[in-house]
Amino acid sequence: MAGRFDGKVAFVTGGSRGIGKGIVQRFAEEGAKVAIIDVNEEALGETASEFKEKGFELYTKVANVVEAEEVEAAMKEAAETYGSLDILVNNAGVIRDNMLYKMTDSDWTTVMDVHLRGSFNAARAAQKYMVKNQYGRIINISSTSALGNRGQANYATAKAGLQGFTKTLAIELGKYGITVNAVAPGFIETEMTKQTAERIGISFEQLIEASVKNIPVGRSGKPEDIANVVAFYADERSSFVNGQVLYVAGGPKD
């Protein structure tokens, strides 16, 4: 049975863990050739070995999304290796949570750089290939935190910024057969939410339990829940869906 992404090449930033890894798995299972960049060399190596054992074709490279030259070089290698670059998922992210009065310059700058400069670097590099091919899918990973979240002035601002970035690129690139959309996850069980539990001094199980109480569908999210939406945006048949932000949180968000 043919996969819906047969012949397509997907490039995922921060793809070695959590939501990114779930997205990589979905693309690979549905026939895409996938390129991953990440700053975490150990996690990247483990993910590459795991997927290659399953028979999936992956390109992996240690690269920092904040460094434009590293992103461009990795993208060039991936495109040359697989023959094209059709899908970009800007997933790389970090948290440096703190209340405003405790937040340092570094806390602010690091989060802005990874989420905003990183997505800018990757999108700018990818659009060259996509415009040439008159086809592309760019998917940015935002967050429900974009609507405001205590202790996340930096992260919320960056994720809200990604939504403006998404809508602007959708307007600029639509005429080239390129759509640009965003997914805004709610509470998803990942290494990042484990860090949140540690920061506030509770177990991960306690954080999940507390979060589920406020989720109408009565469960927490998993990386595959986000991968499902990314795959929808990336589908060739989704060409009339452009500039949208979909909140994937088990309930409505304002």
Keywords:
8 helices, globular, 15% strand, 254 residues, seven-stranded parallel beta sheet, 2 domains
Note down, in words, how this protein is organized.
The protein has 254 residues and is an alpha/beta fold. Helix content is 48%, strand content 15%. The chain folds into two domains: 9-186 and 222-248, NAD(P)-binding Rossmann-like Domain (Rossmann fold, 3-Layer(aba) Sandwich); 190-220, no CATH class. It contains eight helices and seven strands, in the order E-H-E-H-E-H-E-H-E-H-E-H-H-H-E. A seven-stranded parallel β-sheet has the order 3-2-1-4-5-6-7, sandwiched between helices. Strand 5, helix 5 (153-173) and strand 6 form a beta-alpha-beta unit. The termini are far apart. The mean pLDDT is 96.
Alpha-carbon distance between the termini?
40 Å
The largest β sheet comes out as: 7 strands, parallel
Radius of gyration: 17 Å
Secondary-structure element series: EHEHEHEHEHEHHHE
By CATH, the superfamily of the largest domain comes out as NAD(P)-binding Rossmann-like Domain
Mean pLDDT equals 96
Strand content: 5-15%
- CATH A-level architecture of the largest domain: 3-Layer(aba) Sandwich
Q: Which structural category do the helix and sheet elements fall into? A: alpha/beta
Oligomer: single chain
* Contiguous runs where pLDDT drops below 50 for at least 5 residues: none
Count of the separate structural domains = 2
What would the principal axes of the Cα set say about the shape?
Answer: globular
CATH topology of the largest domain: Rossmann fold
Strand ordering within the main sheet: 3-2-1-4-5-6-7
What is the C-level CATH assignment of the largest domain? Answer: Alpha Beta
**In total, how many beta strands?**
7
Helical residue percent band:
40-55%
Tally of alpha and pi helices: 8
